[in-house]
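Any chance you'd type out a single protein's sequence alongside its tokenized fold?
>
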Amino acid sequence: MTRAEEFETLRPLLFSISYRILGSVSEAEDAVQDTWLRYDASPTLPTSTKAFLSAVVTRVSIDVLRSARVRRENYVGQWFPEPLLTDPYEDPERSAELADSVSMAALLLLERLSPLERAVFVLREVFGFGFPAVASAVGRSEAACRQLAVRARRHMDAGRPRFDADRREREELARRFFGAFAEGDVDGLRELLAADVHLTADGGGKAPQWGSGVVGAENVARVLTTILKPFVHIGGAVEPHEINGQPGAIFRDWDNNVINTWTLDILNGEIQMIRTIINPDKLAHIGPVADPWAVIRQTAQARGTPSD
């Protein structure tokens, strides 16, 4: 197997590590490409290619995260991770850890950790790397990595929501939700929403803040049904789709361009949170991106109300 072929075999793992550290598809792809350039330029072959490449992509991702955190502190409005449609890496022995760690809620919890804590948690708790490999990847002693892992696990356990474990039940509830949404059924939506459900958006100052800060089943149900009819009237479509391992949807305009994504947090048979990402910078990896302002204007006109 050539060096390039071996790298391509490990690319899904490298991307998955980097995405969990960075919460960004585009930045993770860049980190993986940087890892390849460093590997290709290396004059010697490592004893373990997997260990070497995992360490390199981790270090690159930590450096990127440190600079990204400064930008995120100045981000306009609520910051959410870039939506991930499909995790390219699969490991049957760690399927639960992999699925749990890629949810929007888990990635937002990871944002609270320091870059080193985050990297250690991802390598150790999500991918099951031994502490010698973790220590080598982050450039710290094994003892220091054990302490970082303990602190990270404590923070994650304290804030981690307990989502419904039964995937089929979540999918069925999501199917009912999008069915009621498509029919404009306020009562049907309301009965699926938690009393304190929260609908919130990430527009990054580059798109309208659809649903930003709407709280409560009655308010959210009415906002959703108010949006749908004029949206469909102008040729918009709602495409149910799993996003970050959770039930969700991709919204598309009349030309099939991506407007935004939704993810649903489901707990105890109710929808607790609806997160929508409409910042066009975070959607380009899904497909051609719509002009969100044009969509809002046309939707408002179809509803017969001012666009601002």
